[in-house]
UniProtKB/TrEMBL annotation:
Protein name per the record: lipoyl(octanoyl) transferase
Protein's UniProt keywords contain Acyltransferase: yes
GO process annotations (BP): protein lipoylation
Domain of life: Eukaryota
Pathway as given in its UniProt record: Protein modification; protein lipoylation via endogenous pathway; protein N(6)-(lipoyl)lysine from octanoyl-[acyl-carrier-protein]: step 1/2
Membership in a protein family: Belongs to the LipB family.
Length: 186
């Protein structure tokens, strides 16, 4: 478990090094879990929180960050991948929509590798993330500076799903959040 602020500092460090080195920079990836944390994207509002932002649930932290998107929960049992990639350099593309679809593909492949039914997994038109059997199983929120990416994708492997009740996840109130373990149990 890595506190959100520590992982955020790592991302910013990799980002600054990549910006300084330009095309000589190596891509990097951070894979971890966080203690219970709610993050708010750059343009999000507190309307998607079901608690007073000044008094979060016991044991939760709240952080505003630069990524796109609305309120997202991070916690134990959720694998979070923060790729720091120069999207302007092959094999990547300097296109954030392409990048978000690529992260969704990574999450979908992981979900299927972990045993979920490929026929039930995919995308939902007009919504970001990776889905299975009507449940959002992975959230995507990214940012790039001079085409170097940071933030990333969070895959719900076996988190405490009750923690998602504290927010309207990604601003989507009419679709449930799920996990790989929940969906494998049927």
């Amino acid at each position: 478990l890595t506190p959100y602020d520590e992982a955020w500092a790592w991302q910013r460090g990799f980002l600054e090094r990549a910006l300084e080195r330009g095309d000589d920079a190596n891509d990097a990836a951070i894979l971890l879990q966080h203690p219970p944390t709610v993050t708010l994207g750059a343009g999000s509002t507190v309307d998607n929180l079901k608690f007073n932002v000044d008094r979060p649930p016991t044991g939760f932290e709240v952080r505003r960050c630069e990524r796109g998107g609305e309120a997202t929960y991070h916690g134990p049992g959720q694998l979070v991948l923060y790729p720091i990639l120069n999207l302007a350099r092959a094999p990547h593309e300097a296109d954030l929509h392409w990048y978000m679809r690529a992260l969704e593909s990574v999450a979908l492949e992981a979900m299927i590798e972990l045993g979920l039914d490929a026929a039930k997994c995919g995308r939902v038109d007009g919504l970001t993330g990776a889905w299975c059997d009507g449940h959002k199983v992975a959230a995507v929120g990214v940012r790039a500076r001079r085409w170097v990416s940071y933030h990333g994708v969070a895959l719900n492997v076996c988190p405490d799903l009750s923690h998602f009740a504290n927010i309207i996840p990604c601003g989507i109130g009419d679709k449930p959040v799920g996990s790989v373990s929940q969906l494998l149990r049927g």
